[in-house]
Amino acid sequence: MVMDLNKCIGCQTCTMACKRLWTRDEGMEYMWWNTVNTMPGRGTPRDWEQMGGGFADGQPRPGRLPTRRDFGEAWDFNHDEVFFGGQGDKVHLQVKGEAPDWGPNWDEDQGAGEYPNAYYFYLPRICNHCTHPACLEACPRQAIVKREEDGIVLIDEDRCRGYRFCMEACPYKKIYFNHQKKVSQKCIFCFPRIDQGVATACARQCPGRVRFVGYRDDQSAPIWKLVDQWKVALPLHPEFGTEPNVFYVPPIAPPRLDADGNVDESKPRIPDEYLVSLFGPDVLRALEVLKGEMAKTRAGGRSELMDLLIGHKWKDMFGGFDRDPASIEWEKGA
Ligand code: SF4
Ligand code: SF4
Description:
With about 325 residues, this protein is an alpha+beta fold. It has helices at about 15-20, 70, 80-85, 135-140, 165-170, 190-195, 200-205, 220-230, 270-280, 285-300, 305-310, and strands spanning about 1-5, 35-40, 55, 60, 120-125, 145, 155, 175-180, 185, 210, 235, 245-250, 255, 265.
């Protein structure tokens, strides 16, 4: 998958599409296999970027097990009291029990920088279905498999014994523990849809046309063009050593303003070092390519890259996985 961060509006439609489809069963209440967080920010689970895992110099790097609280509990609200208690405006919607102190996108739209040069952008995340998955290597039960045909990484819940070594090892902290079923669970890249030629729910439902789906080596499709031809889509935290298969087109912020409110081109609004810390040093070259192609179209020219990123024809973004899910008779559990 490729996600264009210049088009994400943080609407969480992808998050809800995923929730609706995959994580409504028992024990999954607090799970959000797809998250969209404001960056810079502490993320979900809280401070995941500092939790370790993955590989350093080819060797597994110790990782910390995120707690349920780091992800944010599934809060229980006083709906009955507010909607059916007959107390009018004397009661307000609030969380029952202990006050929450973290949750998905908790630091929404805070970002960083000082007025008038404050900045933020949204970072949607799913399991990266890595080429070198730390989760898979850490599992002593061989309960995690990477499908040969398309590289989707899946957990076999019948083999899982709930040791959670995978959660410690995944540097992206994209595995959840089901405390009812006592098994680990994670994004399945909508494989039952993929098997039928249908793109993932997060991609199809995205109103921003942020997400491209397809095989990495299909040279006729956008993924190959963005990752390998134009080289403007980069993995998140490549230094984690798992070789993610989700790639990001980095964000371009509006120009900085000086004290008089005039455009100041001397340095970018989003500091280069911050983007390098997320996407590695190659991000600076990718940004130059993107800005160059944008300038071309602004001057009245054509750019294959800009046309690709705009996604004029929505279904062309799905690398052939463009079948309408409504045309299929789905069976639950099939
Ligand atoms: S992102 Fe984490 S859970 Fe997903 S394949 Fe990579 S290491 Fe495994
Ligand atoms: S649905 Fe698309 S635009 Fe909305 S938050 Fe998700 S990726 Fe961003």
